[in-house]
Design goal:
about 80 residues; mainly beta; two-stranded antiparallel sheet; 1 helix
Length: about 80
């Protein structure tokens, strides 16, 4: 298996696609997302995976099992 290297902050800031897959491995997938003002990703359920979100700009809200978290540039969220 090959490794993967990226300047994730630069790649994220350049990305204009709603969803851009950078890497898929056996146990994880690295995806960049770019949302327009007012847009959301909808409700997601991943029964066998945890998710890590890193925010590179703007502000938003994450709702996890009814708990609301305000997020901004530099924040990270883990969804179990």
């Amino acid at each position: 298996m090959k490794g993967f290297k990226s300047n994730i902050e630069n790649d994220t800031l350049k990305n204009t696609n709603f969803r851009e897959v950078l890497y898929t491995g056996k146990y994880l997938q690295l995806v960049l997302m770019s949302l327009k003002i007012g847009e959301d990703i909808g409700e997601e359920i991943h029964k066998n995976n945890d998710q890590f979100f890193r925010f590179e700009g703007g502000t938003g809200k994450c709702i996890i099992d009814g708990n609301e978290y305000d997020v901004k540039d530099g924040d990270a969220i883990i969804v179990p």
